[in-house]
Amino acid sequence: MNFDRQFWLSHAFWPLLLFLLIAVAAVVTGLDRNLEQSWAFDPIARHFVGEGAGSWWARSLIHDAGGAVIRGLGLLMLLAWVATFFFEPLRRWRRPVGFAILCVALGAGTVGLLKQATNIACPRALTEFGGDRPYVGLLDARPATLPRARCFPGGHSSSGFALFPMYFLCIARDCRRARRALLLALGVGALFAFGQEARGAHFLSHDIWSAAIMWFACLGVFVIGYRGEVWEPERRTCRVDPLPDQPT
User: Fold this and answer.
1) What does the alpha-carbon distance between residue 218 and residue 108 come to, in Å, rounded to a whole number?
2) How close are the terminal C-alpha atoms of the chain, in Å?
3) What is the spatial distance between Cα 212 and Cα 106, in angstroms, rounded to a whole number?
4) Is the pTM here over 0.85, yes or no?
5) Which sign does the torsion angle of CA 133, 137, 143, 147 carry?
6) Which site from 19, 56, 108, 194 is most exposed, i.e. has the minimal number of CB atoms within 10 Å?
7) Which residues contact 229 (CB under 8 A, 6 or more apart)?
8) Residue ranges of domains in the chain
9) DSSP string, 151-195
10) pLDDT digits (tens, 9 = 90+) for 203-233
11) How many other CB atoms are found less than 10 A from the CB of residue 101?
12) How far is 38 from 20, CA to CA, in rounded Å?
């Protein structure tokens, strides 16, 4: 696949610029907390819209059921990859399925490691949202007396953005469905992010970071790991015509 200037603009430069703008705005302007206050948190009732009466859609539907669907798809994908070693007709799927598994493992693994290392609290744990902890920004020094926190980046939304490999699999074959695959991944990731923010589990920037990590993990595997060749090369069989009858 040809990685031309347009490819790098569309897949690296513009996504990185958009991510940096939102990430910096969240740190400098207080965008995260203002947004959470504006729609997700009820200051009178002192709870989030995804709690109480809203828990059926925010927790049970989007978080629990949505997460179960994505985990199920991941298990099927892993079983399909294993099956390619035992069933010859499935062999042509080994490379694309392996690509998707590697993307998800790298992206989700990075999100998981950052959650352990960043020590950022969830919105619902903060005093301004009914909790008992002060707000500490990503670049601020966190007091040692505060308990460990594991809310950054957003884990659940990253499982929705884990559908990004579908887009790269499509563009590798000039598939007309590439745009739809991208919209599906963005839509599922955004829905998962919405549900978690409605529960006070994450700020917007937490989920933007997850989207960026998953996207650039896929891009890195696609460009560096596979050089755009994520599909098995087409195997061609040569048909040999019989020789014409020789005159006697």
Assistant:
1) 11
2) 53
3) 13
4) yes
5) positive
6) 56
7) 1, 95, 172
8) 15-135+147-225
9) -SS-HHHHHHHTTHHHHHHHHTTT-TTHHHHHHHHHHHHHHHHHH
10) 999 999 999 999 999 999 999 999 999 998 8
11) 17
12) 23
